[in-house]
Amino acid sequence: MAEIFPIRLYGDPILKKKAQPVQDFSGIPQLAENLLETMFEARGVGLAAPQVGLGQRLFVAAEYLDDEGAEEGPEADLKTRIKQLYVMVNPVITHRSGQQSITEGCLSLPGLYAEGAQRDLQVRVEYQDEGGAKKTLEAEGYLAVVVQHEIDHLDGILFFQRMSFADKQKFLDLHREDLADFQRQARAFLREEVGRQAAGKQR
Predict the structure, then answer these.
(1) Domain of residue 17, residue span
(2) Out of 6, 16, 117, 203, which residue is the most buried by the measure of CB atoms under 10 Å away?
């Protein structure tokens, strides 16, 4: 049975760290299932391992049958709208072309959206699936944005860091209180984690 993980928020140090390549695939199928369930629970279109506290180069993503992705309407079951699911381990973008800028958000900054992150219109990504088999995906448009966004997570980069200096400062100023609140929640979560680990060692 899949486990739903707590999603790490802006301010958690792991979101700034570069994830390490996966070499042992024995636990990846179960981890991928957990990530997908966590993504569905959060009504997302993608989720990277660092967002649940795991420093591994792995993310999951979904294409849905409509153009709205997963942002709209809590009443709909996302699983009934799945067009394609992706599990990408050790992904590398090997080709880029074109440019686009769309409204972008992030499960680690829930409720915040911004336009201005510069993304490639088309990308080719080479990766391994949950069993270690090598795959290639040609993505364009919104799917290309999702792939770039999640790979950025594996490199410790958040979407607003892809904006121009002026747009980035505008975003940070506009959401200063929200970002400070995320940081407080992240610190509280980490304190609780340390407490749980300490309690576990004492048993």
Answers:
(1) 13-202
(2) 117
